[in-house]
Specification:
alpha/beta; Rossmann fold; Nucleotidyltransferase, domain 5; seven-stranded mixed beta sheet; 15 strands; globular
Length: 571
């Protein structure tokens, strides 16, 4: 763009946007990009995603779509490729996603960290960006091992230091070796401009000083409170550490041994509460990353504090849990170029944990569901299984279904189908879903038809009684008339946890479940919920074991058989 022509454009966002659109229509794409760069300067440093920032991103998106269309047509590919690259260098100052694309621009596709993982990790990246734009005060991220969470934290801290080098940030993990490795990882990115073009986004980004012994570095200038300090949880967290930027707690527990030791969990929480959190100034943000090992681990205790303490009522936080397997029992981390984990890999891994009688570790490490091993009521070895073939030499006494209703919104409908042969109770299939009733009611009806159910027992309360009525109506609409029993449980004075525990010996002795290899995804999730039930801790969801306890109540409360005798036989 000519200087005289540019001076005629008023330096406001609206006028620059209009000029950008005008230049694109005229095919003057370099001038349009100049306008976008100047808009970027106007919105740079905004503390929240205000309208002007969102408008800027929308115009930038339109520009990239235009350039990509030209590339697809083969129109001057070298020039347009560089224009596209420059757009990400410009956008990377205010968009973490653009930054990630820009810094790895010249790497081979299979060697890049971000783009092969982008589709799966975008939710996490966007949540991190919410911290930077002051929509959150704390963010909790739970992912399975080796899925890239620490690497994303590395790039995130580099991005926020590029945006504001005056802030001081602290990275903390359970061991010095981990903290040291993170420090080395940051330096590796900053020291290799060919592989990672950080300065292409932030031209003034300069490492002013480093200290390998203390694991600190300064950006821009040497400061009393370093731009980044890396420490272990039990290292020196006092003195020179005073954070007004970010505190990152990454894997604050060493592993399963610590998770099984309540004293070690208590010690770690004491250090976090008294030493780590106290390093934060009021404006500092907290990013917690790692495995949710236990309801007594540091993450779980901090979340409970935020949920229950009135003193934290205004604290803005978000919990993001991305489990290994999604609701369809498929991998959430099947990245491009084979750098992730396939569904089959996670299925084999889960089977290994099950066979080792350690489903608790699978649930914690890979599904983000902390449970207490010592208080677990059920384990795979406790429960009987069968090969999918029901007894052939005798007809079932009855086939019935028990439904623990829910309206969705996090709670699960749990409905096992039971084939009863005397004392044996075969659980042939289940409905287990947290969808709303428009989804779960048809599932109940379909399962009842498929299994030849003759009676359905519903847990009926004041809030769920109508659920049974609506299922009954759907059955009748399909031409089926089954026995619908709405039973109000007479559990007065008995808590749900206790009644499940009381029924657990009968569940173990009398129920027979499908072999693990024969279970569909609903059955698998149902059983995981059974295994995660604990009598000593808190159970966020206990719908599956509660439905099994209800099965035992139905069986043991069934009317007794009446026999008729002749008068002559009685005297």
């Amino acid at each position: 763009m000519k200087d005289t022509e540019f001076k005629e454009i008023e330096q406001s966002q609206g006028s620059l946007e209009a000029a950008c659109v005008k230049f694109m229509k005229a095919g003057r794409y370099d001038e349009a990009l100049d306008c976008l760069e100047n808009i970027g300067r106007l919105v740079s440093g905004h503390k929240c995603l205000e309208t002007d920032v969102l408008r800027y991103r929308k115009v930038m998106k339109g520009y990239r779509e235009t350039i990509k269309a030209l590339l697809e047509k083969g129109d001057d590919p070298k020039t347009n490729y560089e224009r596209l690259h420059r757009s990400y260098l410009i956008g990377g100052k205010d968009s973490f996603d653009d930054f990630m694309v820009a810094v790895e621009w010249y790497r081979e596709p299979g060697d890049k960290y971000w783009l092969p993982r982008r589709a799966q990790l975008m939710t996490i990246l966007s949540s991190m960006e919410m911290l930077e734009y002051d929509y959150l005060d704390e963010l909790y991220i739970s992912q399975p091992p080796r899925t890239g969470k620490t690497a994303l934290c590395t790039f995130f801290l580099i991005w926020v230091m590029g945006r504001n080098s005056e802030r001081s940030n602290l990275y903390c993990s359970y061991a010095d070796s981990v903290a040291n490795a993170f420090y080395d990882g940051v330096l590796e990115v900053l020291a290799d401009p060919v592989t990672y073009d950080v300065r292409g986004v932030f031209p003034k980004f300069k490492v002013a000083s480093t200290d390998a012994k203390e694991h600190i570095l300064n950006i821009g200038r040497k400061k009393k409170y370093a731009s980044l300090s890396c420490r272990s949880l039990y290292g020196a967290l006092n003195g020179m550490l005073d954070c007004d930027g970010y505190v990152v707690g990454d894997d604050l527990h060493s592993g399963i041994e610590e998770a099984r030791n309540k004293l070690l969990l208590d010690k770690a929480w004491s250090v976090v509460a008294n030493n780590l959190v106290s390093r934060c100034k009021d404006q500092a943000k907290m990013l917690w990353v790692g495995t949710r090992w236990s309801i007594y681990d540091c993450f779980s205790r901090r979340i409970e504090l935020l949920e229950t303490s009135p003193k934290f009522a205004n604290r803005r936080y978000k919990v993001v849990n991305v489990p290994a397997l999604n609701g369809r029992d498929e991998s959430n981390f099947d990245y491009q170029f084979g750098v992730g984990f396939s569904t089959d890999t996670y299925h084999r891994l889960r089977d290994t944990f099950e066979r080792n009688d350690d489903i608790a570790s699978w649930l914690a490490q890979y599904m983000g569901a902390p449970i207490e091993r010592d208080g677990a009521v059920f384990s795979p070895d406790d429960l009987r299984t069968y090969n999918g073939e029901l007894p052939q030499d005798v007809e079932a006494d009855r086939v019935f279904m028990v439904v623990d209703p829910a309206w969705g919104g996090g709670d699960y409908v749990a409905a096992p189908v039971v084939h009863q042969y005397g004392e044996e109770l075969y659980i042939s299939s289940v409905v287990y879903s947290n969808a709303d009733k428009s989804v779960t009611e048809p599932l109940i009806v379909a399962k009842a038809k498929e299994e030849g159910v003759s009676a359905i027992y519903f847990e009926a309360t004041r809030t769920t009684g109508s659920y049974a009525d609506e299922v009954d109506k759907r059955l009748k609409d399909d031409g089926l008339r089954l026995n619908i029993i709405k039973s109000v449980k007479n559990w007065t004075g008995v808590g749900k946890q206790q009644r499940i525990f009381d029924k657990s010996p009968d569940i173990k002795a009398r129920m027979v479940f499908l072999d693990p290899g024969l279970r569909d995804r609903e059955y698998v999730r149902f059983m995981q919920n059974v295994y995660s039930f604990t009598i000593e801790g808190k159970n966020k969801h206990d719908d599956a074991p509660d439905s099994l306890a209800m099965v035992m109540s139905v069986v043991t409360s069934a009317p007794r058989t009446l026999k008729v005798y002749s008068r002559s036989g009685m005297f």
